[in-house]
Model the fold of this input.
Amino acid sequence: MVKLLVDGKELEAKEGLTLLHACLDHGIYIPNLCYLEGMKQPPASCRLCFVEIEGNDGPVPSCTVRVEQGMVVKTDTAAVRRLQVSAFRLFMSVHDVDCGSCPANKTCELQRIARFLRVGLKPGKLDLCLKEPNIVQEHPILDHYPNRCVLCGKCVHTCLSRRGRPSMTFAQRGFNTVISLYGGADSPGSSCENCLACVQVCPVAALALRGQGSCGEQS
Ligand code: SF4
Ligand code: SF4
Ligand code: FES
Done:
């Protein structure tokens, strides 16, 4: 075990644990979208989990740092919040905010982060830019909503961990990047067993059983 100081509070954490994981375990929330427990090499793609560590030049993503004895960490500096708000607004600039008809409403990680950062679900001064089509129905039983997807990769990682080879992947590049599903158990060559682990791990309801991706009143 190692001891470290986070926001003035002493924590004890298992050696080898990521700083993000240690903080979350001790009830210190740091916004995050792309980290999953057990990831050997977190992708660090969401750029939300920044913290400042004494001795470092600037903020670093806490999912990429392992805890160390004597580490002194601040999770709530102005520089950290600036980076998190900018990253969050970028996500919201490609997000179709329609919480009233979204199954993730009230459990959604974006709503949680917005509340934590005290910002709205709007992209601020950035233009809203949505993808077409709004629903992709390549898979026999799953619908994918690219304008909800935050490209966190949790579905791909979970599928790979369970099956050894994923039934989904990132496709295309840049703004056009999407999650592509290869098909269900009845699709030749697919390893998909329709286990729905990807649906369960998705932080924003960007994957849903066919016809269940929309509910309630329009917001
Ligand atoms: S994923 Fe759903 S609940 Fe979350 S912000 Fe988007 S529309 Fe709202
Ligand atoms: S579908 Fe969900 S879990 Fe998969 S990358 Fe998009 S937001 Fe993440
Ligand atoms: S959780 Fe660290 S960059 Fe996404």
The first strand starts at residue 2 and ends at 6.
